[in-house]
Design goal:
With about 200 residues, this protein is mainly alpha-helical. It has a domain of about 90 residues. The chain has five helices and two strands. A hairpin with a 2-residue loop joins strand 1 and strand 2. About 15% of the residues are buried.
Length: about 200
């Protein structure tokens, strides 16, 4: 049985006194404080900072590596394109040179055939037409236009009876001299000197 009085509580021993309750709260606060202290000890700000810094450094290094890889790839692609372009240009130049040599040899044959009295006018006319076409092509796409125009004049002059043979012979002699000079200068393959054709 309990008796109540103002400001005081006298129990029968079965309840908790204010001091005990206060002690229990204090114990709990101490326990919580200890746990917080333990967590604080486990959480090291400098370690977290170092870990974040290391992670940031790794990310930065990966980005730089990827950037360098893309840059290298772009450089390789550009170099490959330039190499392919140069190969195409060289292939075209080689084909043009081969065609030019082929036409030179054809025109040489026509010049020789044009030395035949009478019938020589036909190959001389064909030779004139070829030189004219080559002069026009050179003017449009680049080449020795002046030389082709000169050869066209020589081939046209070769059609003149009697005098034409002298003109044709002079043209062949001049062309032969030019071939010999070019051969010595460029140390050309002997096959390039098979005929004395007009370029």
């Amino acid at each position: 049985m309990a008796f109540k009085m103002t400001g005081m509580n006298f129990g029968d021993g079965t309840g908790s006194s204010p001091n005990k309750q206060l002690g229990a709260v204090t114990d709990k606060l101490s326990s919580v404080k200890e746990k917080v202290s333990n967590l604080k000890d486990k959480i090291d700000p400098s370690a977290i900072k170092e870990k974040l810094s290391s992670k940031a450094t790794n990310i930065k290094e990966n980005l730089v590596a990827k950037k360098d890889a893309l840059k290298t790839k772009a450089t390789n692609v550009r170099q490959n394109l330039v190499a392919k372009k140069e190969n195409i240009k060289q292939t075209i130049a080689n084909k043009k040179q081969a065609i030019g040599k082929g036409l030179d040899n054809v025109q040489t044959g026509l010049s020789v055939a044009g030395l035949t009295p009478g019938a020589g006018i036909i190959p001389d006319a064909a030779n004139t037409a070829i030189s004219g076409a080559r002069a026009g092509y050179s003017k449009l796409f680049g080449g020795n236009t002046k030389k082709h125009v000169k050869n066209m004049a020589i081939n046209a002059g070769s059609m003149i009876p009697v005098a034409g043979q002298a003109i044709a012979a002079g043209g062949l002699a001049a062309d032969a001299t030019e071939r010999v000079t070019a051969s010595k200068k460029n140390k050309s393959n002997p096959k390039d000197f098979r005929f004395f054709g007009k370029a």
